[in-house]
Fold these 2 entries.
Entry 1:
Amino acid sequence: GTLDGTNPVQAVAGIATIRVKSGTTISSYIINANSAGLTLVNGSTITYVHGYANMLVTSVDNQYIEANGTSYATITTRIFDRYGNFVNTGPDSTKLIIYKITGTENATWFDGTVTDKQVGATAGVATISLKSTSHPGPVTVTSSSTFVIGDSTGITVVAGNPTKILLNSSRLTVIADGISLTTITARVTDANDNIV
């Protein structure tokens, strides 16, 4: 915060006043006053708190998960005011967060569903988990709520470790004429037949 007005202040009838303009970050300040020959009995503590919820910030703990149908990632959404202060108290800290998943062939929610989920925030934080399918590819999770700017985060479902080789022939029947050809293709895959 900053003092807003002329300083020092001339007392009138034993009283002097000055305004203090708030900053944009959560903090506390102690305001003191002094004058020659006088003793300060107490300072005045001013605490700046967060404003109303303005935006969501969504992140993921594991950006890459294996396409094995059992790997999980946890999505976390935090609520902030317009100046980036974390909204962890008051009614806005318990907003209902709506999650939407795209790329549902690659991942589902923790319970195997893919429809939108609603999660109530606690102290400014909401979390939800998603689970990979056996199909690699990109996944996007979007978070939204009323009267705030939403956010999204991305996850990539990737093939697992190589475990086998799959062979394929372009022609299963070939004329025995000494010149006909067939092409053999070898694919290195994980346990779920995803190419590595």
Entry 2:
Amino acid sequence: ALRSETVKALKPLRLRAAQNSSVRQRPMMASGRPQGSIQKVITTLEFLSVCSGPVRDIYAYWDRRREGRRMPSRTDINPADFAGHLPGIVFVEVRRDPLDYVYLSVGAREIEARGSDPTGKSVADYWHGGGGMEAVLGNYNCVTTQGAFLYEFERFVGRSGNYVIDETLFMPLSPDDRNVTDILTYTHYEDIWRKS
């Protein structure tokens, strides 16, 4: 059955895609999700009106830890503070010269979604996402260069035949509030209804 919270989330997201330039809809690539998929990226606080409760909770934690700065540092983040969300948490290190993103810590649900544990490996080699490698790396590049969060929403038909919502929130971390050294991501999946 479709939850009323999910229905409320889908309608405003569709409207904002047409009205707001901070919402980008990406076409699915050949290596991405099946035809009929929807993928949107939001880089403003408007995402809070459409995201799930767990994503909102993680954003609120990250926002509190900023303490008025653009972004918190890695040492400001204590995974014990959000233990119930750890299966969907991924810490990624930003390496430079050349630019690369390396998985530092990957939650159990994210390991299951990928089919193996990518800890210690490059995102470019072990990426996971419906829009393809360019879209995944584009999200990390955006967060790194802008020093700001990014929310990605996908709806697709999963292996079960159910529609699935996949939300990912990318949040930058920096010791000096300028140079992003790590990215904290949280992903929430939800089966929402059976495809007719």
